[in-house]
Amino acid sequence: MRIVVARCAARYTGRLTAELPLATRLIVVKADGSVLLHSDGGSYKPLNWMSPPCSLAVLPPEEEAAARGVGEVWHVQHAKSDDRLEIELHEILHDSTHELGVDPGLVKDGVEAHLQALLAEQIHLLGPGHTLVRREYPTAIGPVDILARDASGGTVAVEIKRRGDIDGVEQLTRYLELLNRDPLLSGKGPVRGIFTAQAIKPQARVLAEDRGIQCIVVDYDALRGLDNAEDRLF
Question: What was the pLDDT predicted at 213?
Fold first, then answer.
């Protein structure tokens, strides 16, 4: 992983156009080829990024850019689309490379991991005709909790949380963006997303539904067979 702190400006073109004015930022270049620009706020989410597969070319600035104080220009080009991230570096304050090795992955807490196992065993709760493909489906940005097929053969990605908030929806959105680039998964239509939790915050539900992601609230005790409707007073 390469870590660069620099005064830089950036422009993203392709499916959308976005610009970042000159400021001091953290640039992360990962071993998988992804490039991310971070500010000193906004939690974990980068200001802009390019997901793999992509290539990075470091070029000298043109005369006009050099006159503005640009020292070098990074062209990050996606391999399967016209998306491009162009970063103008004015001043590099830090530049280091580190070998992180193979990451063991996120270890989920007991309840969340158990929810995943129980839902995989009761995959029909996602809807009639759903079948399990596998748990912890690997991707370049982390494992998808559950990958399934619906009754029509379409691919479904399921993200499971104890408490469903906006961060969980954003995480599933990134998975869907990556999975939909795989023709083996999206051949029968776009990969659908299902956001599952014991409770989903209203803001997260609005965001999910706006992005076409289905929300399902699950009952942990019911999944474990401990919630018997016949024993309820109401």
Answer: 97
